[in-house]
Amino acid sequence: LVVLLQEDGADEAGDRGLVGEDADHLGAALDLSVHSLQRVGGVQLGAVLGGEVHVGRASELVDTGLVRVEPTPLGDERGDLDTAVLGFQRGIELARREVLESGDTSLDDVTASLGRRLGAVLSRRGDYAGAEGVLREALEHSSLDGPQRAPILVALAHAVAQRNREREAYRLLGQALELAYRDDAVLVQADVQLALAELRRRENNVQSAISALAGLATLLGEQGAGAVRCCHVYLELADAQLDADDWHAAELSLARLRPLLDEAGIPHMRARALSLRARVHAAKGEHARAVALYHEAAEVAGVAGAAEFVASLEAEARELSEGSGYKGVDPARNAAS
User: Measured between alpha carbons, how far is residue 108 from residues 119, 144, 172, 245, 286 in Å?
Assistant: First the structure.
């Protein structure tokens, strides 16, 4: 990842166009966004993650109050989970080294943010024990009144729920919701509600989950939430509706999802949407179309580098082709189990 503040590129107070990135070509799994806090004119920074100029120089700028450097949430969504893990681990290592060398604890929030993202990626890769350890460490780095604490608690709740500790997950989500209400953080509240809906599905309370997810989709639309967060909700909603054997409602949810997927541009999400469409066609008895969609989803997931997801999709297609008791289970959940 390369972040560049071009000379005279931030000389207007409202100018937010400060990031020059080529992350896809570099193969980096971590994006940085740099936001202007006031006039910066004449500053030039080349920060290469993993290179010689990185956190130290960025920290100098943070200390001046001129800029704030934050990791964006999209790096772990691009699909290459192994590369994402290495990228986030490297980012955490650099932040720790800077704190040790300088004694400056102002990077604790950066470390916490990176830890949250690393934990989320490990969860998606199925390493829930590793995710829990990373997230608990991230929680230690987050300040009690900092903006990172509630999202870390949500991610940690997901990890412990996957390890069959649902009561602990509910407790963590309660803490996160309390913080979100305190800060009036509507989108964090939405993330908590999404996690609660996922817990209800684990407890086979599908109708309750559907009601919560449908309300959440409406709330996010009213709040003008980003495409990625909305995609998460509609994917979970369609999946839950299919679990309830309501393919008509799932088809409508997937239709609403389509423009959001184009905006988000995330291969893993697109692959999952295709797999859910395959389940809809299978439920309608259109098996040939369903098999074709599973194969298409596998190709997209392959581009994303999600090998386990690809294998699960191909298995679903093979099972449907052979007509050997098709179950219609979301392959994305199979891949993580």
Answer: 16, 12, 21, 46, 53
Complete DSSP assignment for 218-283: HHHHHHT--HHHHHHHHHHHHHHHHHTT-HHHHHHHHHHHHHHHHHH--HHHHHHHHHHHHHHHHH
Q: What residue ranges in the chain does DSSP mark as E strands?
A: 2-5, 32-36, 45-48, 67-71
Question: Rounded distance, CA 230 to CA 234, Å?
Answer: 6
CA–CA separation, 6 and 325 (whole Å): 60
Residue 51 exposed, middle or buried by CB count within 10 Å (0-12, 13-18, 19+): exposed
Q: Specify the amino acid at residue 92.
A: I
Supply 167's token pair: 């009561």
With H, G, I as helix, E, B as strand and everything else as coil, classify residue 187. helix
Are 153 and 176 in contact, with CB atoms under 8 Å apart?
yes
CB-CB neighbours of 239 under 10 Å: 26
Q: Looking at residue 331, what is its pLDDT? A: 60
User: To the nearest whole number, what is the mean pLDDT of the chain?
Assistant: 75
Q: What is the pLDDT of residues 117-131, one digit of tens each?
A: 899 889 888 899 999
pLDDT of 251 reads 96
> In this structure, how many other beta carbons lie within 10 angstroms of the beta carbon of residue 22?
10
| pTM value > 0.85 | no
CB 283 within 8 A of CB 242: yes
Q: Which two tokens stand for residue 258?
A: 């389509």
Within 10 angstroms of residue 128's Cβ, the number of other Cβ atoms is 19
pLDDT (tens digit per residue) in 62-98: 343 333 334 433 344 445 667 778 888 888 888 888 8
